[in-house]
Amino acid sequence: MLRSPGIVANIIVGAKPEPYLAASLDAIADVCDHAVINDNSGTPSGANAPVYTRSRLAATGRLTVIRTRFENFSVARNTCLESIPRPFKGGWILFVDADEIHGAELPAMANLLDRLPDDIDAVDGYSRHYWGSFRWWVAIDRRLCFFRHTPRVSWSGAVHERLTGADRRAVLPSVWAHYGHVVTPRMEWEKSRLYASLGQCDWAPDERALATATPADVYGQRARRAMPHRGTHAPFVVPVVAALSHAWSANFREIDRIVALQTPADRAKNAFRAMNYARLLSWRAAEARIRWGWSANTDQPARRLLPASRAV
């Protein structure tokens, strides 16, 4: 087992403000030795620049910012890989989006990395997809979290891109939050239009549809699959949850009204789905303990960060 040169986060941001970016960066700051942000807004002072330039990563000299014009998602991510500072090449990459918020599971995962066999290329966990508001979620999906930076890894695909060259993976029962679908109806459909422009789907909302989009228009089709969130949110995102719950309160009330229309059969199916997700994570936890010596003990000593790089 080789000692990694460190952990570098790769993040891409665009021209539109990312409401969860500050919390996302704060949540990874105690785990990452460095971060590379690709601001592909096409301007030197994009909408998200004030957020990342005031982050703890920036304040401690652990941030590299590159500015590009957006072509597609794989090009943006490969540009991040190419821009990793030399001292961190060959280390671990943290794959994280600007609308994902990690909690105590991330340092536990990071502490395991240098104890994994050398032939493990990547580490997966699970992402819980919140939907419509902070009260509802629709799925828990397996998700890439860490991968080794080697010459053979690269991203392919214009949208919903895939990492190639990282075939052998360890899977951990760690779950973090994805809030990409907790936005306004217009913001949700703007993403649909972007994906359509990249060939992901045939339909794209026009300007009139964007201007008049309602929660029922945008979220109604998945309302039958919404499951209640009964836990808490990671500490870093709690202030954001409070602020957006106030700012988007009318939308959230409409989401609650839509979900309340679920039939008893819908609720029974959703309870069964939630039980299956819990069973899957329990099985993954047992497997990870046996195969990788996994422990979710969050009281273990924190991974020690490397000295700050001079990259800018």
Task: Tell me what you see in this structure.
With 312 residues, the chain is an alpha/beta fold. The protein has a domain at 7-181 and 281-292: Spore Coat Polysaccharide Biosynthesis Protein SpsA, Chain A. Helices cover 35% and strands 23% of the residues. The protein has helices at residues 21-28, 49-53, 56-59, 73-82, 105-112, 185-197, 207-212, 215-219, 238-247, 249-259, 264-292; strands spanning 7-13, 34-39, 63-67, 92-95, 100-101, 122-131, 133-148, 154-156, 162-164, 169-181, 227-228. The strands form 2 sheets. Strands 1, 2, 3, 4, 5, 6, 7, 10 and 11 form a 9-stranded mixed sheet that branches. The protein is globular and about 55 Å long.
Pattern of helices and strands: EHEHHEHEEHEEEEEHHHEHHH
Helix/strand-derived category reads alpha/beta
Count helical runs.
11
User: What is the alpha-carbon Rg in Å?
Assistant: 20 Å
CATH class of the domain at 7-181 and 281-292: Alpha Beta
Number of strands: 11
